[in-house]
């Protein structure tokens, strides 16, 4: 009888472990490069509210991250810079923010770029995101009807912005949140045509527990405050 009781206790313990009884202490978030500053800040708040929990980020091109997840990369949360990219991973995501393009120029704006049409001037060197990534797709929309020949096509928006901060180009089309994050290193030139291509940012929890909690933080009033302060627009509707 004593042996049967011991077996029953052991089975209870094993069953508890198998159902997630041990709380997960690590969270891996895959997010668009343009979310680097805001999600890093939200990750710090998340960790502060949960002692012992570690949040690890993988920032990059949304298209590249989606491919990595598709190949089995261990992501708990995915936040993309476009619904089309998110669709490759999940159709259950929720839009949490919007973003639009702005022209980034070096401090002092030596090429005197005043609007989108100036990017077509032959002497102005321009960096764009590659067309297969969200910031590149948005750039293609706003540049319709305008002949702009970029000197480089980068794989994510941060790499595109770096071309300006290093003085390698006269201008780059990036998100206005990236211009704001790089304040002091670049200047921003707004243009009316940016309204043609406002990107929705969707997010999804790919696992439960901490992943659900992190998504809830991003969707919360606190999360919206961090995103709005960085220049993101609120989700439509």
From TrEMBL:
SUPFAM superfamilies assigned to the protein according to its UniProt record, in alphabetical order: Periplasmic binding protein-like II (SSF53850)
Pfam families xref list: SBP_bac_11
Alphabetized InterPro entries for the sequence: ModA, ModA/WtpA
Highest taxon in the source lineage: Bacteria
Alphabetic keyword roster: Metal-binding, Signal
Keyword Signal carried by entry: yes
The family this protein is said to belong to: Belongs to the bacterial solute-binding protein ModA family.
NCBIfam families registered for this protein in UniProt: modA
Name of this chain's protein: Molybdate transport system substrate-binding protein
Organism of origin: Nonomuraea africana
């Amino acid at each position: 009888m004593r042996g049967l009781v011991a077996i029953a206790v052991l089975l209870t313990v094993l069953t508890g472990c198998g159902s997630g009884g041990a709380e997960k202490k690590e969270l891996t978030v895959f997010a668009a490069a343009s979310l680097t500053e805001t999600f890093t800040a939200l990750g710090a708040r998340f960790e502060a509210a949960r002692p012992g929990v570690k949040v690890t980020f993988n920032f990059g091109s949304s298209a590249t991250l989606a491919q990595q997840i598709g190949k089995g990369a261990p992501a708990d949360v995915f936040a993309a810079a476009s619904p089309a990219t998110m669709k490759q991973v999940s159709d259950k995501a929720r839009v949490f923010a919007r973003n639009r393009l702005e022209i980034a120029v070096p401090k002092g704006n030596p090429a005197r770029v005043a609007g989108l049409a100036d990017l077509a001037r032959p002497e102005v060197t321009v960096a764009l995101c590659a067309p297969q990534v969200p910031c590149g797709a948005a750039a293609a929309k706003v540049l319709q009807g305008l002949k702009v020949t970029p000197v480089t096509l980068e794989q994510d928006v941060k790499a595109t912005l770096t071309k300006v901060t290093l003085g390698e180009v006269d201008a780059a089309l990036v998100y206005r949140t990236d211009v704001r994050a790089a304040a002091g290193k670049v200047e921003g030139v707004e243009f009316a045509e940016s309204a043609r291509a406002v990107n929705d940012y969707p997010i999804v929890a790919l696992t439960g527990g901490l992943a659900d909690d992190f998504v809830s933080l991003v969707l919360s009033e606190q999360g919206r405050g961090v995103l709005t302060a960085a220049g993101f627009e609120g989700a439509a509707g």
